[in-house]
Amino acid sequence: MPQPASLSCVIPCLNEQANLGILLPQLLATLGPETGRLEVIVVDDGSTDGTPELMRHWCGLHPEMVYLRLSRNFGKEAALTAGLEAATGDVVVCLDADMQHPPELVVAMLQRWREGMQMVYAVRATREDESWFKRAGSRLFYLLMRTSDGRGVPPNAGDFRLMDRAVVDALLRLPERDRFMKGLFAWVGFDAEAMPYTPPQRLHGVSRFRPLKLLRFAIDGLTAFTTWPLRLLSLLGACLSLVAFVYGLFIIVTHLLFGDAVRGWATLIIVILFFSGVNLMSLGIVGEYIARIFTEVKGRPVYLLRERVQGRAPGTAGDAAPGRPPQPPAAPRSANPASPAQAPASQGSTS
Ligand code: UDP
Ligand code: MG
After folding, report:
1. CA 26, CA 161: separation in Å to the nearest integer?
2. Which residue, 285, 275, 280, is CA-closest to 240?
């Protein structure tokens, strides 16, 4: 059975020292035999625990390891982007550090890749473990995302997925800075297949995605991939104008017929309040899109790298460079759209 010549695992992590100590040995043991060359890229998204020390130690023992330390917390999407840019494998797998993404499932994903699938993504078989509120929220989110300008986002799919090199290269060509990865994964297309699984509980620590952050995340996704809310506003404006016109006619006619000029104060207040609310809401929705444009035109890098440590076998000289900016600043990817995969990755992507 053909093995991928090389397999890269990208693991974004924020204060996951306790989990990494358990995940990494499992990963090496499970995936090592599956490929000619395994590469495990741990992207440290501004951890304040002992992750840097742990990873330097691991890199001194295992040539498969690559440790990327971002200069601060840039968010999971940026950490994933950093990992994908650094990955060199024919096949790339993204998984979380908290043991919610079992390495054994990657073996099953690899099997589907061997059979010709270019992307295999894990979907939660059930959300029964979540609160009613969160379940309703995610149902609404996926419903709205079905209207996106890609193929929609597959319901209940996360970032846990295996991708062929062709898919990764396509993702790296997308120039946006505000990177809603779930949407980008779906947008690039290719032959993709869902693999149901039941995620175990997080081993140590707590989720960083609290309800408010999830709401923010959902709004980011919607504004990144849909424009219909703007059109909906135009439609709402047109409908309300029509209603206002008809109501205006009604008032004129009753005034002419009955001379009734004083009544209607309550109606007036309600109408003013209603229209003020609609106006403010519309401004807010338009503002969300303008904020996205603002983020994009600033053109700041998606992340900045503070340290890169390349793993090495014990007793050999490595190229660890803790604390030293590893390379000159990367040219903005948008300035070199023809060869995104070759853009220097170590000083932050400008994608
Ligand atoms: N993570 C990250 N940066 C962040 C937040 C989270 O790299 O700002 C990592 C985190 O360490 C974990 C993964 O993203 O490996 C998923 O995070 P979490 O378990 O908190 O999310 P959930 O599983 O609840 O969606
Ligand atoms: Mg988790």
Report:
1. 18
2. 275
By alpha-carbon position, which residue is closest to atom 11 of ligand 1?
A: 13
The two counts, helices (H) then strands (E), for the chain are: 10, 8
DSSP string, 64-82: TEEEEEESS---HHHHHHH
Distance of CA 305 to the CA centre of its chain: 19
Question: Considering only CA atoms, which residue is closest to atom 8 of ligand 1?
Answer: 75
How does pLDDT run across 278-328, given as a tens digit for each residue? 887 888 888 888 888 888 898 899 999 999 999 888 877 654 444 444 443
- In a 3-state reduction of DSSP, which class is residue 161? strand
Ligand 1 pocket: which residues have CB below 6 Å? 12-14, 16, 45, 73, 75-76, 79, 96-98, 100, 202, 207-209
Per-position b or e across 314-351, b if 16+ CB within 10 A of its CB: eeeeeebeeeeebeeebebbeeeeeebbebebbbbbbb
The answer to whether 75 and 334 have CB atoms below 8 angstroms apart is no
Partners of residue 42 on adjacent β-strands:
11, 67
Task: Show the tokens assigned to 53.
Answer: 């020390």
pLDDT on residue 338:
35
Whole-angstrom Cα distance, residue 126 to residue 124?
5
Task: Enumerate residues 6+ apart whose C-beta is below 8 A from 26.
Answer: 103
Predicted TM-score (pTM) of this structure: 0.76
Q: 3-state class of 197 per DSSP?
A: strand
Q: Residues 118, 166: contact at Cβ < 8 Å?
A: yes
